[in-house]
Amino acid sequence: MSLVTMENLRVTFHTFAGDVEVVRDVSLNLEAGEVLGIVGESGCGKSVTVQALMGLLPRDITTVKAEALQVADTDCKNFGEASWRNLRGSCVAMVFQDPMTALNPILSVGTQLIESIKLRAKRSRETLGDVKAEAAALLQKVGISDPDRRLSQYPHELSGGMRQRVVIAMALAGKPRLLLADEPTTALDVTTEAQILLLLKDLIKTEHMGLIIISHNLRVIAQMCDRMAVMYAGQIVEEGTVEALLGNPRHPYLQGLLQSLPTMATTKLQAIGGQPPDLYSLPMGCSFHPRCPKAMRICAREMPRLEDNLRCWLAKAKITPCPTVSGELLEKCDAYCNRLAAANDAKGQSVEGEPATATAPLGATNNTNAEGTVKS
Amino acid sequence: MVGTYLFKRLIGAVVVMWAIITITFMLMHAIPGGPFTEEKKLPPQIKATIEATYHLNDPVWVQYTDYMKHVVQFDLGPSYKYLGRSVNDIIGESFPVSAQLGLGALVFAVIGGVAAGIGSALKPNTWLDYIITFGSTLGISVPTFIIGALLVYWLGFVCPIFPVALWKGPAYMVLPILTLGAQPMAFIARLTRSTMLDVMQQEYIKTARAKGLSNWDVIMKHALGNAILPVLTYLGPLAAALLTGSFIVETIFAIPGLGKYFVTSIYNRDYTVILGVTIFYSALVVGFNLLVDLLYPFVDPRVTMEEEDKS
Prior knowledge:
The structure holds 2 protein chains of 2 kinds.
Chain A: E1 4-15, E2 18-30, E3 35-39, H1 46-52, E4 62-65, E5 68-71, E6 74-75, H2 81-87, E7 92-95, H3 99-102, H4 109-124, H5 128-141, H6 147-151, H7 160-172, E8 178-182, H8 190-207, E9 210-215, H9 218-224, E10 227-232, E11 235-241, H10 242-247, H11 252-259, H12 313-319, H13 327-347
Parallel strand pairs in A: 3-9, 3-10, 7-8, 8-9
Antiparallel strand pairs in A: 1-2, 1-4, 1-5, 5-6, 10-11
Helix pairs in contact in A: 4-5, 4-7, 5-7, 7-8
Chain B: H1 2-30, H2 44-53, H3 60-71, H4 87-122, H5 127-141, H6 144-158, H7 170-200, H8 203-211, H9 215-227, H10 229-243, H11 247-252, H12 259-268, H13 271-299
Helix pairs in contact in B: 1-13, 4-5, 4-7, 4-10, 5-7, 6-7, 7-9, 7-10, 8-9, 10-13, 12-13
């Protein structure tokens, strides 16, 4: 049985400005020993999705709905706070983004670590000495030297990398089967980042845990993950193995992300134009279409479904005829896409497409009216 | 380390005390009139004799140096108005009363204020929060003498549960403590509420919840210690103010405390009492602030007493 089964997760925030759906129909699967990466811009719902796996979202202002939600063989679909609490630490644990703020500044490392161990030790009746020895062993496991001294130190006395190791040790204390890492290295410098990632990778192997790692950084994902999911505006837009997605990105958003990666030869940073959408007033159709260089008229009208792990009309237009699009349009689309691809190959970079912005007269357009879709 | 820190702070305290004494002394003498200026004029010879007895006809700087000589021996001099009593006697008799009242009010204010603040912060925007916020706003804005009068009316007159005046035992302390503690309690409640709301948003609270700690443990072990820090800072001056008594509360409840001397000594131009109570109060403020600063590192390990350690 898989470690995580999540089907059609929907998370709504109730705010003063009204309800806003921040996660829409997200489905995830994870096996033990597998590493899944989630990438996307800030505010795309990555963290919220992961927090929903621990029941960490504040109950009073959020509604979490899912058709299925299983974590570590437990059905959590209708869990209350108390049931989640039993699961946290022992089945699922979390490594937070910023080790500067994730540790309580006024409690010693030992206090915070032992607290985690005790939660589990209560059941197996360990003595205080055992617990302390275990805390030291945990620190050693995450690569902290002189653990006995570190236990009596306070977070502000440790470096950023050291603190993140402590956070990881705390997460491991309950011997969880699933580890969630919410941008675990964003706040660290590159050298420390590499060390922490190596550590996480080792731990997954030795402890045979599942890991879901959130990152802005495609290089981190490439280095760490078996599979990855790309999120945009609360939806998964493409999912698959890391090799497939990074080697042959199909969604224009992922293509854009990859093109904006700087290399040594980069003189000017590439960026995806426009802004992430306002979740309160999402554009009609595909959420990405206002920024998409390859947007077609249908993209502005109808939301593509996630099929073959891809949520994009472009691919569907090529693969299967869509009932709402006429044959004539499809041919034009096809031709357009082919030309784009050719131009892409030739130039090796993005081509100015014809963006179908939200200002296009959407309602007025008829299905059979293909004129204007592609400027030829 | 602590030794050098303490030494530096004590030197600083002495300088502060000297400045307070000097400024008060000069201001006091700058006010027209003196302790023996009465509506009914004394015969000039008698006045001259009295002033000679108390050395009031010496030049001000001579009086100043004389006074300082006595102060360094902890002798605050005789009162000019209360014949036969020294300022040390006055403080010695009335301070214990004020201190009892003040300590009661302090405990009441801190426990009540922190509890109310936490309560409203944990259930923000609920009826509990609204009641506490409304109550603390009232507590801050309604003057003490009105709170005192209302308490006397409701708890002493309409439902006569507590005695309304004098200082003869525990039952007599209830109304004055409530009156004196109301305003600081309201202030502490607001302070605690805002810091607690802030602390509950912090990442380490999320970490604590992600560990699987119960709500109670998250609040008591992780949130409270951080939320209490600003309250601790406020506690130093508050303790000094409450322990030295309040003119208003002592007047309403006819309590023989120190508070009334702060006001009456000025009417009376009772130079030594003015200086004496000012010195006493200042010493308490300086002392309590120092105490709070010494306690701070125990609550917040990021604060150290070593000035070099800025990292």
